[in-house]
């Protein structure tokens, strides 16, 4: 996996949040997504610190997106979770890898980094929501054919 489990959980949780601005409790998201509750709550707090989520305490509180899902990029979430240098450095771990002293994978990794960075900048949380919706519909169609 290129990124941490926490980043995957963050993306799944953001895609599961309602678009209408209502608040969702961390425990409800945890149950819906079958993710560990305390760990997810910590991740959601990190997304609050990154200004991707808003949180409110109390009986009508929870978490919600700070802006529409089509305005939050996957890259923004990855940066919030992994740090700004997530895609930097040598894939083989050499400290001096670069244009003057490339490792054997330098050129290949540079091309991959460029493509991944571009894709993450273009993909949004809304795109993830739409993919999840399409996957659910496809699964329902397969189940109906079998039943």
From TrEMBL:
Annotated SUPFAM superfamilies:
Winged helix' DNA-binding domain (SSF46785)
A GO term from the CC aspect: cytosol
Stored InterPro entries: Tscrpt_reg_Rrf2, WH-like_DNA-bd_sf, WH_DNA-bd_sf
What Pfam families does the record tag this protein with? Rrf2
Source organism of the structure: Candidatus Geothrix skivensis
A molecular function GO annotation: DNA-binding transcription factor activity
Higher taxonomy: Bacteria, Pseudomonadati, Acidobacteriota, Holophagae, Holophagales
> Which protein, by its recorded name, is this?
Rrf2 family transcriptional regulator
